[in-house]
Structures
1.
Amino acid sequence: MSNGAWSGKSYLAEKDHTAESLLDIIELAQSLRKKRAAGVEEQHLIGKKIALVFEKASTRTRCAFEVAAFEQGASTTYLGPTGSHLGKEESVKDSARVLARMYDAIAYRGFAQSTVEELSTYSQRPVYNALTDEWHPTQSLADVMTMMNHSASPLTQISFVFIGDGRNNVARSLLITGAMLGMDVRLCAPKELWPDAATISLANSFAAKSGARIKVDNDPKEALSNVEFVYTDVWLSMGESKELLGQRVELLSPYQVNSELAACVGHDDWKFMHCLPALHDGATKQGVELMERFGTAAFEVTNEIFESKNSIVFDQAENRLHTIKALLISTLS
Ligand code: CP
Ligand code: NVA
């Protein structure tokens, strides 16, 4: 089983692909999800080997790659933030050529987008962006799949708002993906944290073709009005200096997803989304540290909303598995 448009391709950012090809992955993921729930797994990747090169921590993305590969008959090697030579004793270019001699594909999580691009150029293997500072393109596939599964509307009628740090990888990926797919896309952040002009202009040019409605706003009342999905993410992303935290809390507190903010939606049937991990209670080491410093352990979302009936974050997390599996099958089988 192979999907012509994807065979042998890398997935470094959504913008490098077409709306149709992103939807092909989601459609395959939907069918894989149903089959898996019925206990059916047809293996398409027997004997394939995938290197997982992660320079930042991960739970969902790493596990999704590992479980997807295992269930499809492939094997993985995990190279974590410490313990490999990549970028330290060995250049990315040299590591890419070594990994290409042993593996069929590489997933990479790290910092600069140029690193994942370099891995792709020099390995000549499919390379998957498992998150960089710029994009999180495997996340957005799962996000769209989740919205489709929780909405009665056709995709182009679905509305979502990303609220929080509008310049981060998840926000940028959602903005571009929603624009490519013709959705009602709202990004709500203080002006200091809006995406750069080039990203907004790229979203607008995709929207001109797809019919997407794009609105970048700093007013939650307007941005959340009558929306279906409210999506947020951490206020400080991996790799950012902890020194920025005080400033972020000050800037983003009015954008916390809490019951007062949720009232701006104007109906009860909205859904809460978050790529996770989320800072919503004191049950983590980081939560305890933040509690001592700021007197609260709930940052981008309150525990009340996170645990509410509106929250679909664990469906969203599960969909990382199905979409990553669909990506592996489409590129490698
Ligand atoms: N959403 C996400 O990428 O989670 P991890 O950092 O756990 O992989
Ligand atoms: N924006 C977050 C996403 C984590 C999945 C980060 O980069 O840390």
Note: DSSP finds 13 helices and nine strands in the chain.
2.
Amino acid sequence: MKILVTGGLGYIGSHTCVELLKEGYEVVVIDNLSNAKEEVKDKIKEITGKNIKFYLGDMIDENLLDKIFTEEKIDAVIDFAAYKAVGESVQKPVEYYTNNISTVLVLLKEMKKHNVKKLVFSSSATVYGNPEHVPIKETDKTGGTTNPYGTSKLFVEQILKDLYKSDNAWDIAILRYFNPIGAHQSGLIGEEPNGIPANLMPYIAKVASKELECLSVFGNDYPTKDGTGVRDYIHVVDLAKGHIKALEKLEREQAGLYIYNLGTGIGYSVLDIINAFEKVNQVKVNYKIAERRPGDIAECYSDPTKAKQELGWEAKLTIEDMCKDAYNFILKNKNN
Ligand code: UD1
């Protein structure tokens, strides 16, 4: 099977390409390199011994997508290409909606034209807004998103539901990621945020490696076990494997629209993560308690039962694996 991976050189996309190649899929990538480096292509080759076919370009470019679908005989698409910085999305809503929604519309139009109707879409637990309870099930209420990034994911989910309603020959898996962290064990690919990281794990790793001075823990007065925010951190390699399982489901079934939480089902606090990181890497993480970050919620973790039952997938890697691999990646790529 030949899979088009949009945004395939990015953080989650690149790890998914590795797993696809390992499973024997042919991989075609389109990426505009807005938040990825072309050398990731070579890293993927180094890890798997296999090549991907790479198209440099923007998904808004209908002619390019038309060319790819015409030339490559694609069987299914995994759509990762999107902007994902929550804070930036508040400053640049038009750019976020354009990039995260218009590109999907162009993609769907081209998929329809070329009769490719299998799609795995990269969504986020952010669509649950401030959850009424934890753990969160797929059937729980969505909405109440607090930023354009989250709202763009919610809108695309709705577009996909409407599309499926209009033509149920489509086969769609919407995957709602919790908090992906870590890196490939090789240290060759991982998360490389532009500038100062906004997310917890890349920030911790850079404090540990002395690139940044001190982590601010955003609030210690939440109604959680130690007062700091609780999240469902998932190793990016486990997450990548979830995409393979979702694809297998789309191959197996007649057609349908399926939604899955991809998380571990375990909630760790910010202090848990700092402690695990220090212990496994034998390194000190300087931190101070700071004000709550606006828009943050106390607790967010998944009920991953549905993915286990229907996809035969569950996260296997531990919080220690996540901390070890995140740090390994930072140390290996420090001067790049
Ligand atoms: C955010 C987004 C989510 C996105 C994810 C990417 C929202 C509400 N959340 O999740 O959609 O998929 O990023 O991984 O839109 N923290 C600190 N200090 C820091 C950074 C973070 O204490 O310097 C704390 C936060 O307050 C939070 C936890 O660490 O309790 C995790 O934060 P972060 O990594 O930014 O992820 P989320 O906000 O959960």
Note: The mean pLDDT is 96.
